[in-house]
Amino acid sequence: MTTVGTDLAETGRVVAGHVGIPAKVLQKVAVAVVAETLHVRRADVRVLAEDDAGQLALRVSTPVRVPMLSEAVTMPEGGVLAVVRDLQSTLTRRLSELAGRTVSRVDVTVSGSRTDRTGSTS
Amino acid sequence: MSGIDPGLHRRVLRREQHSSRSGSAIVVLVLLTLVVGYVGVEAVYAALGRRALLFSPVDVLATLTSSVDGGGTSGLVLGAGVVAAVVGLVLIGLAVTPGRRGRHTVDDDRVAVVVDDRVIASSLARAARVSGRLSDQQVSAWVSRRRAQIDLTPASGLAVDEQSVEAATRSELESVAYRPELTARVRTTDTGRVGA
Amino acid sequence: MTSSNRFANRLLLFVVGLVALAVGAFLVIVALPGGGVLRDLLSPASSALDDAVAATPIDPSGATGGSWLPVALALLCLLLVIVFVVAIPAHGHGRTDSVVVQDDPAGSIAVSSSFADTAITDALRDRRDVASVGVSAWTVAGRPALKVRVRLTAGSSPAPVVAAASDVARGLDRVLGETVPVLVEITGASAVRKGADSRVA
Fold first, then answer.
1. C79 with C113, same domain?
2. Cβ contact (<8 Å) for A79 and C174?
3. H-only helix segments in chain A
4. Burial level of B183, CB count in 10 A (0-12/13-18/19+)?
């Protein structure tokens, strides 16, 4: 899986001009970030980019990996909600790094679960 | 358990064990719509002063009086009355009886559980078959509200070990906390099957 | 777990039943030879009705010859029909898409019922005593709740499945970070013979 983008700081030189990034590209970038962060397939992730009073609002629909359910299950502290909040901040950060866009909100719908048969999530 | 109101399980389980009567209610509503709709149409006709389709609501009492006095169609009135009364009794019966759905609940701390009686009967029959070394045609299990009846049909000439069947079914029932509580009764039929 | 108003259903059945019974009894008594008392009421009632119709003309000058009593009846019927027609589809609702919802300035989070569905199904499906699993989400008492329908293989005891379902639900609690009420419905493969009782060989 390709990791997304390079750090803008590497180029060093600031060149004048407008960087136009169409919505589709932003969405694709967001999909890649989500898939990479949650270890799910890009095909399962959907992102919609909208304008929110000048800032960028993202609507994400994605599955989340879970261990096989049982009382003895180990899941990061806070469970799925914590994973999603983490994703929200990661997306905000990455979209700023990669595309220079400020994200105002990330609405996430956890559309399904992908069960890890080994019994723990990475 | 935090977050779950204990009354919630009770409510949900109670609903799951009794019929909602939605089916009957919908049938009644549809029929009422047709009947009342028809009466409304007749009323409109009568209001416009036009002739009635079947009979006009304005003339209802007059028609009834004449049919009853005349003696000719009083049989029809009688028949209609009987039908209406019977339907009324059936509906009242549906409204008032609990409509139990043949299920039992199981006590558990975390989840509310409701089990079809067929599943219970099936599990008891299997326990009986295994413990009594019987074929599935020799065991018949039936579960009612408080009783589980297990009937064993022996193979002719081969005695059935009723005691081990009793022990097995009792331990099966004890392994699950059914509510209302079930007691197992095992019975061996008098006549056996020759080739079992 | 549907939102059907059970009390309303039974009330409807009771009231309609009572009315039908009353009307039926009345007709029976009136039609029988011994129904003299009630029958005597018919004639005066009938003429009273005729008088009422005559006394309520639509057109005061008496030209059109109609009465507004039937109009009132028609309006009443229309009103009733509207009530009935609205009541018919009001049954069987209550399903919901989300199991957990949290709103945040950073963005809202909604965990869909499919999440719980696949997580629970994956955990129970591979058991030997389980033939199939189905999970649905409902709104019960204003909150989301799950209904897990488990079909057992023939003859299996419910006890281990109940324990497993309880275990899975507790696992879900930890995964979700919230406790969602769960109803487990245990059914079996339908036997060939159908009957009102639970007779099984």
1. no
2. yes
3. 23-38, 79-99
4. exposed
B27 touches chain C (CB under 8 A): no
Lowest mean pLDDT among A108-112, B70-74, B159-163, C191-195: C191-195
Residues C132 and C110 in one domain: yes
- The CATH 3.30.70 domain(s) of chain B lie at 103-188
Q: Is residue C172 part of a domain?
A: yes
In a domain, C199, yes or no: no
Q: Which residues contact A104 (CB under 8 A, 6 or more apart)?
A: A52, A53, A55, A56, A57
CATH number attached to the domain at B103-188: 3.30.70
The token duo for B10 is 């009770």
Q: What is the mean pLDDT of chain B?
A: 86
Tokens of B17: 């064990």
CATH architecture of A19-114: 2-Layer Sandwich (3.30)
Q: For B37-60, how does the pLDDT look when each residue is reduced to its tens digit (9 = 90+)?
A: 988 888 887 777 666 667 766 677
Closest chain B residue to the Cα of C152, Cα to Cα: B119
- Measure the CA–CA gap between B109 and B101, rounded to whole angstroms: 23
Judge if the upstream peptide bond of residue B180 is cis by omega within 30 degrees of 0.
yes
Q: What mean pLDDT do residues C133-139 have?
A: 94
Interface check for C1 against chain A (CB to CB < 8 A): the answer is no
Distance CA(B50)–CA(B139), nearest Å, equals: 70
Chain B segment 143-182 residues within 8 A of C by beta carbon are: 143-144, 172, 175-176
DSSP one-letter code for A2:
P
Q: Where are the domains of chain A?
A: 19-114
Does the residue C1 lie in any domain? no
Report ipTM for this prediction: 0.79
Looking at the structure of chain C, the number of domains it has is: 2
